[in-house]
Design goal:
Shape: elongated
Structural class: mainly alpha
Radius of gyration: 30 Å
Strand order of the largest sheet: 1-2-3
Length: 206
C-alpha cells in the first residue's frame, strides 16, 4: 500500500509597505474611519438623548440666531458679515452731548469709543438734563464693555470645543446657543450646565 502524501497550501502575505506612496497607510485610514464613525454615533446618541429628555434644550439648538454671533448684543449687524460695529448711539440719535459706540479693528480687536458729538452751550437750568444724558452715555458704555467680555468668553469656548470630545462639544454648543440667542451670562450658563450634567450622571448611576 503506497504512502499517502498530502500537501498543505500556504497563503503568502506580502510584506507591508511602510511607505505612504502619496496616501496614508491602510491601518491609519481604518483608524480614522473608525474614529469618525464613533464620533458620529456619539453625536447622534447625544442628539437623541437631548431630543427625548430635554425638549427645551433641543428647541434651543434648532433655532438659528438672528444677530451677530461673534459679538452678540454688541455688534448691530445681522446675517453673514465680517465687519463688526455699533453706531446706534450717536448724539444725533440720542440727544446726548457725546456719541459712544463700538468697532472691531482689522486685527479682530474690540474698541469702544467716545466722540465729542454735539458741542453746544446751554443755560444752567438745563444742567440736570445734560448731566443725566452724560450718565446714560456712561451706563451704555459700561454695558458695551460687559458685552465685549461676553464675546471674548465665546471665543474661548469655541477654541476649547475644537479639541473637545463629542459629548463635551455638545455641551459647549448648548452653552454657546444660550449666550448668543438669549444673551445669557456665560458664567451663569456654565454653572447651570454643570448642574444638568450632575443630574444626568446621577440618573445614569441610579
Amino acid at each position: 500500500m503506497g504512502q499517502l502524501t498530502t500537501t498543505t497550501s500556504k497563503t503568502t502575505i506580502p510584506p507591508m509597505d511602510p511607505g505612504t506612496n502619496g496616501h496614508e497607510p491602510f491601518i491609519v485610514q481604518a483608524a480614522d474611519a473608525t474614529r469618525e464613525r464613533a464620533d458620529q454615533l456619539a453625536r447622534e446618541s447625544a442628539d437623541r438623548y437631548i431630543a427625548k429628555n430635554m425638549p427645551a434644550v433641543a428647541a434651543l439648538l434648532n433655532e438659528e440666531p438672528t444677530g451677530c454671533t461673534v459679538w452678540p448684543g454688541l455688534c448691530t449687524k445681522t446675517g453673514d458679515h465680517d465687519e463688526h460695529n455699533n453706531f446706534t448711539h450717536g448724539y444725533e440719535r440720542t440727544g446726548w452731548p457725546v456719541s459712544v459706540g463700538f468697532v472691531e479693528t482689522e486685527d479682530g480687536q474690540p474698541v469702544l469709543y467716545v466722540d465729542n458729538g454735539l458741542t453746544s452751550d446751554f443755560p444752567p437750568e438745563h444742567a440736570p438734563t445734560v448731566a443725566q444724558h452724560l450718565r446714560d452715555a456712561a451706563d451704555y458704555l459700561e454695558g458695551m464693555q460687559a458685552k465685549v467680555e461676553t464675546g471674548r468668553a465665546l471665543a474661548r469656548l469655541r477654541k476649547v470645543r475644537e479639541t473637545a470630545d463629542t459629548a463635551f462639544a455638545q455641551v459647549l454648543t448648548i452653552m454657546e446657543t444660550a449666550v448668543v440667542r438669549d444673551g445669557a451670562d456665560p458664567a451663569e450658563v456654565g454653572e447651570r450646565v454643570l448642574e444638568l450634567l450632575a443630574q444626568v450622571r446621577a440618573q445614569a448611576g441610579a
